[in-house]
Specification:
Keywords: Ribonucleoprotein, Ribosomal protein, RNA-binding, rRNA-binding, tRNA-binding. The chain is mostly helical. 43% of the residues lie in helices and 3% in strands.
Length: 126
């Protein structure tokens, strides 16, 4: 089954399989299945054509995949253009939502360090 150009995994429950689409999480997947009157526990491969079409119809009202990614990147670009604080944080590759940076934020900064012990030298016993 393909929705928005994404092939859904057939061996997973449809509730979980829908979350492979960018912009669809568990709660939105459950809401869509509720509106389409499809059981959550049904496997993706067991869906009938009518059920697939109903799910597609319900998903058309949401921005997903490419449209959503364009919207998000446009929002970030706008923040950078107006030189907002959050835009500057995005430009510098730092956390933009107020997290501390003295420790943590290693993934955002790309600073990979090895964990040290206590910082003391080992004393050899004689």
């Amino acid at each position: 089954m393909r929705i928005a150009g994404i092939t859904l995994p057939e061996h997973k429950r449809i509730e979980i399989a829908l979350t492979t689409i960018y912009g669809v999480g568990r709660s939105r997947a459950q809401y869509i299945l509720g509106r389409a009157k499809v059981e959550f526990g049904k496997k993706a491969k067991d869906l009938s054509t009518a059920e697939e079409n109903e799910i597609r119809k319900c998903m058309e009202q949401y921005k997903i995949e490419g449209d959503l990614k364009r919207l998000v990147s446009g929002n970030i670009k706008r923040l950078k253009d107006i030189k907002a604080y959050r835009g500057l944080r995005h430009m510098r590759g730092l956390p933009s939502k107020g997290q501390r940076t003295k420790t943590n934020s290693r993934t955002r900064r790309g600073n990979v360090r090895k964990t040290m012990g206590t910082g003391r030298r080992k004393v050899e016993k004689k």
